[in-house]
């Protein structure tokens, strides 16, 4: 437990300054506290959280996923971004919960369509099980305090991440031949997300060598946790879009990938029957 506390609370390593918020969270990241503003504990970690808000809002609007669990997943990503901003801005216990609880909800929301794509339509038992897990983990995050809370959350969420990636990999291996559009989505999304996790671990484990302090190998802090926010947001976006595509393909719908925001972000569009008829007629006119 001494080792856990040494990597979790790093206020003595960060050059912590005084600010308006009391430090009550179970973790204090590598960025120096209140270095830029007395009102924002971790400035760059807070600002980079906006990436999650944008990704969630853009994803829910660009992709054809209305009235599906995937629309809810995109909106929960936005909520994670809001919670992350408030958590890093204050480093308080309740704002930490506002960051971590939506992360659990988002992962469990994704699991339902992924489970059904893999194993077929399920009965009410799946909803009941996922709801029970959501309640249990939410209570765990909000009731347990200190280093035990940090470890319990990371173990629980890591299991959800691993199971989600496992289900996505099964779908990818089954669909990649008939749906080549998903290849780039899955490979790039998974690679980006795993690289983001590596950056997160590096920032957590080697803070004293990367924070610009006396023992640091660098004369500045590269703000790796902020980089984790940006990269994880992009990787997660691609993986959710992959799931949207697989969801509609599994349901027998015709879908296609298009590029939005000047070619920066792919999104899924359902092809309606009228669109197919118009496309067929245009081809017929050209051949005549």
From TrEMBL:
It is a multi-pass membrane protein. PANTHER family: ALKALINE CERAMIDASE 3. This is 4546_t:CDS:1. Belongs to the alkaline ceramidase family. Its cofactor is Zn(2+). InterPro entries: ACER (IPR008901). GO terms for cellular component: endoplasmic reticulum membrane. Its main location: membrane. Ca(2+) binds at residues 28-29, 31, 33, 42. Signal peptide: none annotated. The chain crosses the membrane at residues 68-87, 150-169, 190-206, 226-250. GO terms for biological process: ceramide biosynthetic process; ceramide catabolic process. Zn(2+) binds at residues 88, 225, 229. Keywords: Calcium, Hydrolase, Membrane, Metal-binding, Transmembrane, Transmembrane helix, Zinc. GO terms for molecular function: hydrolase activity, acting on carbon-nitrogen (but not peptide) bonds, in linear amides; metal ion binding. It is found in: Membrane.
